[in-house]
Amino acid sequence: MTAADRQLEQRWEQLHTWGPYGLLGVSVVLAAATSELINGPAEWYTAGALVVAAVALQLWWNGTRSRRAEGRTPSRAGAANYVVRWVIAFVLSWINPLFAFYAAAGFMDADELIPGRWRRLGLFATAVILAGSQSGGLPPKNGTQWTLFAGLLVANAGLQLVITHLMEQEERRAIERAETIAELERTNAALQQALDENAALHAQLLVQAREAGVADERRRLAAEIHDTLAQGLTGIIAQLQVVANAGDLETARTHLQRASDLARHSLGEARRSVHNLAPVALEHDGLPQALKSTVAEWGERTGIRAEFTVTGTAEHLHDEVSATLLRIAQEALSNTSRHAHATRLGVTLSFMGDEVVLDIRDDGRGFDPLAARERTQSGGFGLDGMRARAERIAGALTVESEPGHGTALSARVPLVRHDQ
After folding, report:
1. Whole-number mean pLDDT of the chain?
2. Cα torsion angle, 247, 249, 255, 256, sign
3. pLDDT class for 417, splitting at 50, 70, 90?
4. What is the band of 209 on the pLDDT scale with cuts at 50, 70, 90?
5. In the Cβ-directed half-sphere of 113, how many Cα atoms lie within 13 Å?
6. In whole angstroms, what is the distance from residue 230 CA to residue 271 CA?
7. What is the pTM of this model?
8. How far apart are alpha carbons 343 and 336 in whole angstroms?
9. Quick check: 390 and 328 in contact, CB under 8 A?
10. Residue 355 backbone dihedrals phi, psi, to 5 degrees
11. Does the pLDDT value for residue 130 go beyond 70?
């Protein structure tokens, strides 16, 4: 509640406390000024006793109301006070019509004293006293006064009932507004709590994302090193083994030159992997040309018949997509040369509208994809590493193989163009 609301509430409280005294005082002054309307000492004594009774009633009510927990809430005690005051005002107005000023207090605090539907009855009873006073006093003495009394009664009662109805509507709207404000405050409190929780969760997610990013970067670098150093060293070892078993100097020199080329190539790949750059093969060529060169070099080095095919309209792919597919192809070729004992191998790169598919097939000895595979000390990331690479760019890797019937590997990833 604001300071202005508290001040207004305090003024209403003062009006309900001192208003009846003021109206009674005005009535006494006017009645004394028109003493000729009071007939005889008996009516004077009666009027004086009723005035004292009215003062005592108001003193009692103010003292009682200040001790009541419900304050200005209508109650049976308030209704009894209203009825007794109305009786006093009715008798005083019968003695002198100007005492009706005191009766007007009934219009002022009916909402505080009378509960529910009885409030309108109390207002009507107060209107009876005022209409009687305005028509010349109670009781009316002739037909004209009766007619005037009836008209004034309708006017007073109707006006007060309309005002009361409007006040009740405004009171209901005020209660609804207060409930709405309270609900909004509860909602705002809950929203603020949710925002605080979201902020804490956001901070926690940032920490987790940072940790996940670090872990992912470590896995990426490990895979890059494996794809460069491990594969290159495997090729070098294979060439050196040929040299060791070579029967003539020319063959040994040829394979030594290949081993030297592989060493240089692997060194360049290792340096670029550390700096998170694309593979060397993609530095000047697109993915189709890089795959063609890789497959041709692998076939020449291993002696396995290798073919490369492109289907669909070739697109200039995003660097990450090209690097991922090339790394998958390199790992698959490395696995084939080490484990498959194949005589033929085919690589197909297919551009299919919104995705790119890399298929690698060989006629090697195959394996059971569902069988548990033990990771050797020299064996790298293999199928798990290729699958992780594809999934990192929202792709998927499928493997079809059967012992004695070769292996077919398919990597399917979204087609993301270089300019996107």
Report:
1. 82
2. positive
3. confident
4. low
5. 26
6. 14
7. 0.42
8. 10
9. yes
10. -150, 160
11. yes
